[in-house]
Amino acid sequence: MSNPNIYIPYLMKIEKITLEAPGVKTFRLKFENDEDAEAFSFKAGQFGEYSIMGVGESTFCIASSPTRKGYIECTFRQAGKVTSALALAEEGDVVGFRGPYGNTFPMDEWKGKNLLFIAGGIALPPMRCVIWNALDTRENYQDITIVYGAKSVDDLVYKDELAEWRTRPDVRLVTTVDPGGETSDWQGEVGFVPMILEKTAPKAENTIAIVCGPPIMIKFTFPVLEKLGFTEENIYTTLENRMKCGFGKCGRCNVGEVYVCKDGPVFSYEQLKMLPAEY
Amino acid sequence: MIELINKAKALLESNAVQVVIGYGKGTSNRTRAIFVTQSDDCDKLIFDSRCVQNLAVYLTKSEIKKLGKPAIVAPIPVLRSILELAVENQLTENDIVVLGITPESEIVDFDTFANIEAFLATHKIVIEEKYHEIIRLIKAMPVAERFAYWVKELEPCFKCYACRAACPLCYCTRCTVDDNQPQWISVPSHPLGNLEWHIMRAMHLAGRCTDCEACFNACPMGIPIHLLTKSMLQDVNDNFGSYGPSLEKQNTLSSYKPDDKESFIR
Amino acid sequence: MQTENYLIRKPSLEKLFNNLISGGKTVIAPKAKGNLALFDKVQAFGEITEDYIVTTNSAKSVVFPRTEKLFSYHKSKEKTEITDASSSAFPDVILWGTRPCDAAAFVPLTDTFNGDYKDIIFNNRIEKVILLSFSCSRSDDSCFCTSVNSGPGNTSGSDVLFTKLSGCEYLAEVMTPKGQLLVSENIDLFETKTSEDKEKSLAVVATRFNQEEIQAKLQNLFENPVWDDKSRACLGCGSCAYVCPVCSCFDIQDEAHGNKGTRLRCWDSCGFSMFTLHTSGHNPRETQGARWRQRILHKFLYVPNKSKIAGCVGCGRCSRSCPADINILETLTSI
Fold first, then answer.
1. Number of Cβ pairs closer than 8 Å across A and B?
2. C330 touches chain B (CB under 8 A)
3. CA dist B88 to B84, B168, C272, C273, Å?
4. From the candidates A2, A7, A98, which should be mutated to test the interface with C, based on the most C CB atoms within 10 A?
């Protein structure tokens, strides 16, 4: 952080806005101050507090890969006060960013392994940074499989990137929409993510599974992974929680002995099981 | 209070109610609200002059509603709150059993809200002279002085919302201060923020407050916020001739009747 | 950590107070308000009340005020400017009349605001604070300092601890360099002290529970009816958290006036129903019982496990101020 006052955000200019899905936008942000841009670095899995001055702060992951320098990206859905104000912002506007906070996906430990990404809806953004990080350092990993689903075709985010991943020979992409969410020309699967995961049947040997999605999807995905032979230390997720400060002081995200913002948000399933069911 | 204990036991044993909300022994010399679900525990029920907490606040709480149909020990301040909750459609007669306690310590079974209203008609709200004096003093201050007076009185307030939590009529599941689109009332505690909160609460209680003083008793910093509500009560009575809840007249400030005397309505 | 022991007589204590005031220091001490004693700014020695076991409010607002400006901003077409508020000059504050429990609370408070991320606003404030505490000669049913590694004559957190001995004499235990400096600047008011048994001047506070035992029991008590049982009367206000000298949960709020505004840090409480509410509507702690459980587990299990310090100093303020008489001691001794 450039400023010893940990509450002061970096000032970021919105360079590009992409409408991903109804109510969902991606911002590409550049540091106003070149020195900040130079000094800034982060690792996959970390998040930040994004703000509109006068309105407040909101927590989103950093959705771009740390291998891409010069900018960061975040993807959010318009839901409450701050996201509604952010949704009204235009390219060229200035927003605040505090970060990077949180722990990281242990990508170094995963070198030489297969990676299986499982995501639902608006939960693809936290994984997108890991996916691109892995793709940008492709030689470090073995097979990469992505299983991604959303309520409907419209709700799929990063549509352009999905198209790109579909054509890459070094990635296996399976996309699905919930029954009833398909369009007449939909080429992908139809079915809930856990079901499609079982159908895809990726091998568990030497594979790390990274899961992110709404609580109901996670609830039904873990048993499928267990059935496929995944062990608890090889399943990772990133938790969403109500956060404010981002650095373990305000108390909001305290679950058991852990602060989701500081000791997480990345947890292995083994670690998650040790937490009280309060998240 | 043997009669109370026996009545409570009978109600629980016949399963007419599943919980009795009453007063029990608290820390040191205090009393506290107790929730008796077993007939044997009815012996814990007490009633004396220390029992001032307004129990009606528990009638609208989801955790208490889950326990089943309650019987509630109701001295006069609680009776008034129950009546106001009835006027505001928060309670029906089948929802609760009311074990009223008169100032003579008699237990009265009020089986209808109309009976409660009839009883309360002979025990009207009276604002004590000492409060009349200070309210007169404050009202006599010019506006700037009155503003400064309240900013100073409310300075120790740190927005714990104990006043709201203890008030039986603050039952909104989402209070105005909890709205953030837009943020009507500021969240942090500072002179203007404190004033905004208390003025807003007093306004939301206008025509509804039954002068139980639960807000003042709950305030950990001893701020006399009940002056605002008592002053409101007086104003509503002076202007609309109503002092306390009435099933017949309904809610003073939010019920329209064709024979309302206000000329601007015509 | 102790440096020196001194003796000071009551008239000299008053002179010390006057010296501090005339030296331009802000003195915060217990002041009577009706039948409450509240920490407030005082100008004259006579304003200080001695008639209190503990004050109603805690002293934490001198380092962790209920509203703290983090920064202010000004937006214009060309740019956004941020003005840091951490560099404001905070006044020199003398906290006079803190009890040993109040002083001990500054330890977990400092721990929360430091660690991996140092809150320099908090640190700038606490650097300017000197704690002149007074031992307890009486206690009541709600006190349980001796059950949480503290006590009526405990020195932890204080710069100087005064204990009233017989008559008008006070033992002054100087614990820190800050304390020693203050004493040296007023050395003519202090006499040297050889030894004195301060124990007999202290209140007797019976231990009510064994802290390690409770910590061990709480480990397995997550799903237990005690949480709903003991919190049934809880009204869900923030009294307990706000009068607590250790509680430091906060909210961050922006207040805007046109294109200028401030970002503020303000008190919050895990007891409020919306504390953990997600925008999606999901609330991990939906019932008051779950929130009461969080309060107890955080103070008596999670903090001791993680940081090896107490999350509670046993002052009993929460129980005394609770409008519904929810008693923390009762919950702890019942498990």
1. 7
2. yes
3. 6, 12, 25, 24
4. A7
Could you list the beta-strand ranges (E) of chain B. 19-25, 31-36, 70-75, 97-101, 107-110
**B134 and B215 share a domain?**
yes
Residues of A in contact with C255 (CB under 8 A): 54
- What ipTM score was computed for the predicted complex, to two decimals? 0.93
Residues A12 and A40: their CA atoms lie apart, in Å, by 12
Is 2.40.30.10 the CATH classification of the domain at A10-101? yes
Residue position matching structure tokens 């005690």: C226
Beta bridge partners of C218: none
B99 in Cβ contact with B73 (< 8 Å): yes
* Position C1 pLDDT exceeds 70: no
Per CB-CB distance under 8 Å, the chain C contacts of B164 are 237
Give residue B221's domain range.
Answer: 129-240
Q: At what angle do helices B191-205 and B226-240 cross, to 10 degrees?
A: 40
Q: Which residue has the tokens 């001490």?
A: C29
Q: Which residues contact B83 (CB under 8 A, 6 or more apart)?
A: B113, B116, B117, B120, B210, B244, B245, B247
Q: How far is CA B38 from the centre of its chain?
A: 27
First to last CA, chain A: 29
Contact with chain B for residue C332, Cβ under 8 A? no
Q: What part of C 181-200 touches B (C-beta under 8 Å)?
A: none
Tell me whether residue B61 is exposed, middle or buried, using C-beta atoms within 10 angstroms of its C-beta: 0 to 12, 13 to 18, 19 or more. middle
* Global model pTM greater than 0.90: yes
- Encode chain C in three state secondary structure: CCCEEEEEEHHHHHHHHHHHHHCCCEEEEEEEECCEEEEEEECCHHHECCCCCCCCCCCHHHCCCCEEEEEEEEECCCCEEEEECCCCCCCCEEEEEECHHHHHCHHHHHHHCCCCCCCHHHHHHHHCEEEEEECCCCCCCCCCHHHHCCCCCCCCCCCEEEEECCCCEEEEEECCHHHHHHHHHCHHHCEECCCCCHHHHCCCCCCCCCHHHHHHHHCCCCCCCHHHHHHCCCCCCCHHHHHCCCCCCEEEEEEEECCEEEEEEEECCCCCCCCCCCCCCCCCCCCHHHHHHHHHHHHHHHHHHHHCCCCCCCCCHHHHHCCCCCCHHHHHHHC
> What percentage of chain B exceeds 70 in pLDDT?
99
| pLDDT value for A2 | 60
Task: Give the model's pLDDT for residue B244.
Answer: 80
Place of tokens 């459609």: B89
Question: Touching C: which chains, 3+ CB pairs < 8 A?
Answer: A, B
Write out chain C residues lying below 8 Å of B214, CB-based: 323
* Number of other CB atoms surrounding residue A129 within 10 Å: 27
Is C323 within 8 Å of B178 when comparing Cβ atoms? no
Residue in chain B nearest A83 by alpha carbon = B181
* Binary contact (C79, A94; C-beta < 8 A): yes
Provide the number of structural domains found in chain B.
Answer: 2
Asked if pLDDT for residue C117 goes beyond 90, the answer is yes
Asked if B174 reaches chain A (Cβ–Cβ under 8 Å), the answer is: no
> Pick from C79, C86, C270: which is nearest to A251 by CB?
C270
Q: Quick one: B93 and B135 in the same domain?
A: no
Q: Nearest C-alpha of chain A: how many angstroms from C335? A: 19
Q: Are residues B178 and B134 in the same domain?
A: yes
Query: pLDDT tens-digit profile of B191-215?
Result: 999 999 999 999 999 989 999 999 9
CATH architecture of structural domain A114-238: 3-Layer(aba) Sandwich (3.40)
Q: Do B180 and A80 touch (CB under 8 A)?
A: yes
**B·C CB contacts under 8 A:** 105
